[in-house]
Design brief:
alpha+beta; nine-stranded mixed β-sheet; ABC3 transporter permease C-terminal domain-containing protein
Length: about 650
């Protein structure tokens, strides 16, 4: 009988339960998709050679289960509160708490199993598209999907379902055990506990965030930073504690404090929208703050993870533009190689440059730059100013250097610093007792030749260079550079050049080959962290969507009263938009701020300074913010639409 009652309840209240079913289906579908990837032997054999993917998959699996448990516990409370009067009626009709508990268990089991069955299909279909996309993105041509529905993924998802079911059962038993009959009947009308204004605590939260952000910025000072003096790990832990604790306090107390200030400001409060939104938001802040705190931390984690992921992928590809500034470099100086490369010019639009490097030592190795000492045979690689300018322009790099006077030079740093600026170096010109003093008037990280072929590169005026190279005893080497628009990523061009240039050429470098190596090495990390980011997106979106829709259902009578007071449906829609905007904007603003400063810490703690300091953060942060705002906006619009339909469906207005 209880099973029939449970089935009947779900059918009659399907408009309410469908929200729960859809949310669970989306989350479990993501889990099925992830498990299908984690147990796709063909895919793993292509991208995982050291078991790293399998280890990370197991770790993510634990995090996913924790998220699902939180999701189930939080939203199960909504259903208990929504149905408390109905459960109280069952008790009045003679149902014992045991039978009421069994009724809830049957309902939860039906909902979870239904979501599971939908998820197997949806998750498997989704993975087919993801699998195809991965094969294309990773340029895997000799493999295909081994099975449409992965049995191991289904089994692991079923285990998750069992965990979810037991979680709900334990939660329901706990909730029912602490209620008497009268409390259960009146639970849905239980007065919301209001948060007391605590200005001091609210200010403390803001101060903690400011401290965390200030310390994050301080890491930019590198050697002079507190991070270097105290140690990265202690400072990082302190920053994390300040940011997390500050975020919790700001959401819990500072937001309500700001809204209270608005409520006491007549000009800001007494409008048709604010007069409803602000007091009601403050009144429900106690319950809303819990979900806002969790969502804000999830948003912070998602933005941090996604921006750090993009930075981790962007940095080596961007760094390769410095490490291998030309499309191809080689050192084979013979007619056969030159002739075969020239034949390719009929098919490909490229240019060839020849650079003769003079290898000169200094008379006294005092205050020589870091790069000079790291070479096996200590020396400067001297090139002419015109050759430097020509290469940069052919590589498509910005050129903004002033003309050099005799005795002046530009030093090309490996890492950005001013160590050699204004230093004078007395260069030995061959075996004879001749010297040339060059003063470094400018430092740059715009190297025209790969570091494999030239390190400690010194650019000198053409006249000085021509005079230096007259001495035949000076050691020198020749570098040939090939450049052309779109050829850095042209696999076919690389293969044809590689056939011409022998593997014995130690000076051979290719931007395409290194990019391919970088993509292959980071593909598994990219895929796994992308799954985590998507998981966080879905989780936060579901929480906010579900919270707002259920809140709208709970206060539908209030909207009916507003309509009787003269509020038009257009004005009520505006109130709904404003309330939902508050719920979405708080986590978004704090999340982006937390993510931005976390990205700064990540960049200076773990990312090399090869291509500069702060500028590299722009692209990952912009992409992350745009992606997150777009997805957030989609969830926001879906939520508004659902809330409007909810009000219309119940004929409240």
């Amino acid at each position: 009988m209880l099973i029939k009652i449970a089935s009947s309840n779900i059918r009659k209240n399907f408009s309410f339960y469908k929200l729960y079913i859809v949310s669970l289906t989306i989350i479990i579908s993501m889990y099925v998709t992830f498990q299908s990837f984690a147990h796709d032997t063909i895919m793993l054999s292509k991208i995982s050679q050291d078991g790293r993917v399998e280890t990370m998959s197991n770790t993510i699996n634990v995090f996913f289960i924790v998220f699902v448990i939180f999701f189930m516990l939080y939203f199960n409370n909504f259903f208990i509160k929504k149905r408390s009067k109905e459960l109280g009626v069952y008790s009045l009709l003679g149902f014992s708490k045991k039978k009421v508990s069994l009724l809830l268990i049957y309902e939860s089991t039906i909902i979870i199993i239904s979501s599971f069955l939908f998820s197997i299909f949806a998750g498997s279909i989704l993975y087919i598209f993801i699998n195809k996309a991965l094969f294309i993105a990773l340029e895997i041509n000799d493999a295909s999907l081994n099975q449409i529905i992965n049995k191991t993924a289904v089994l692991n998802s079923f285990i998750l379902i069992i965990i979810m079911t037991f979680t709900i059962i334990i939660s329901n038993l706990y909730e029912l055990k602490k209620f008497t009959l009268i409390n259960l009947v009146n639970y849905s009308k239980k007065k919301e506990k209001t948060i007391k204004n605590r200005p001091f605590v609210g200010v403390v939260g803001l101060i903690l965030l400011i401290i965390g952000y200030s310390l994050s910025i301080n890491i930019i000072n590198l050697e002079e930073s507190i991070w270097k003096k105290i140690g990265h790990m202690p400072v990082a832990l302190f920053v994390l504690c300040c940011t997390v604790l500050g975020t919790i306090i700001v959401v819990r107390y500072s937001v309500s404090l700001i809204l209270s200030k608005i409520r006491h400001n007549k000009n800001m409060l007494y409008t048709k929208v604010s007069n409803i939104v602000v007091p009601r938001f403050i009144y429900r802040m106690n319950s809303k703050s819990k979900i806002l705190i969790v969502v804000t931390l999830l948003v912070s984690g998602t933005i941090t993870m996604l921006s750090c992921l993009l930075l981790s992928l962007y940095f080596p590809l961007k760094a390769n533009e410095r490490i291998n500034p030309s499309v191809i470099e080689h050192t084979l100086n013979n007619k056969e190689v030159t002739s075969n490369i020239k034949k390719l010019s009929d098919t490909y639009d490229f240019n060839s440059s020849k650079t003769e490097i003079l290898q000169l030592k200094v008379d006294l190795q005092i205050n020589v730059p870091y790069e000079y000492t790291k070479k096996q045979n200590h020396s400067f690689d001297v090139i002419s100013y015109s050759n430097f300018k020509e290469l940069l322009e052919k590589q498509g790099n910005k050129y903004n250097f002033k003309e050099l006077k005799s005795g002046e030079g530009i030093f090309i740093n490996y890492y950005p610093n001013d160590e050699s600026l204004n230093q004078e170096y007395k260069l030995k010109l061959g075996n004879k007792n001749k010297f040339k003093t060059i003063k470094v008037v400018e430092n740059t990280i715009s190297n025209p030749i790969s570091f494999q072929n030239s390190l400690a590169t010194l650019v000198v005026p053409d006249n000085d260079y021509d005079n230096m190279k007259l001495d035949d005893s000076i050691q020198r080497k020749t570098i040939f550079s090939l450049n052309g628009k779109g050829l850095r990523h042209d696999k076919e061009f690389y293969n044809k050049i590689h056939k011409i240039i022998k593997d014995t050429d130690k000076g051979f470098t290719s931007s395409y080959a290194r990019n391919a190596l970088i993509k292959e090495g980071s593909s598994s990390t990219f895929v796994l962290l992308s799954f985590i980011a998507v998981l966080f997106f879905i989780t936060t979106g579901n929480m906010l969507y579900f919270t707002n829709v259920v809140e709208t259902l709970n206060v539908k009578d209030e909207y009916f009263i507003l309509s009787k007071m003269g509020y038009s449906f257009k004005m009520i829609k505006k109130i709904i938009r404003r309330e939902i905007a508050l719920m979405y904007s708080i986590p978004l603003i704090l999340g982006i701020l937390n993510g931005f400063f976390a990205l700064i810490c990540f960049r200076y703690m773990l990312i090399d300074t090869l291509i500069g300091n702060f500028s590299i953060l722009k692209l990952p942060l912009i992409y992350t913010s745009v992606i997150f705002v777009i997805i957030y906006l989609i969830f926001y619009l879906i939520t508004i639409n659902s809330c409007k339909k909810t009000i219309l469906e119940v004929n409240s207005i």
